Amino acid sequence: MKNTPSLELLFTQLGLASSPAAIELYVRTHQLKANENLHDAPFWNKSQRDFLISHLVADDDWVMWIDELNQQLHMDASKLARPA
To answer: Which domains, and CATH codes, for the chain?
Structure first.
């Protein structure tokens, strides 16, 4: 049986802790700059980066969750970028 992609499963695929608390902590402690691409983040190892890029290029079922992760890791940047 194939697992349906989800944010939790994405974290598992990336070799990261995938409980809701672990995801929340990861997101809070790995915020990216506004102009920083998700796959260029310095905290990914080669296999994690390759996983992200290959699924983005394939535009498969993972893209929605990779985009979600990208948005969450840019939350601080988007708050700073908002016009007053």
So the answer is: 9-81 (1.10.10.1130)
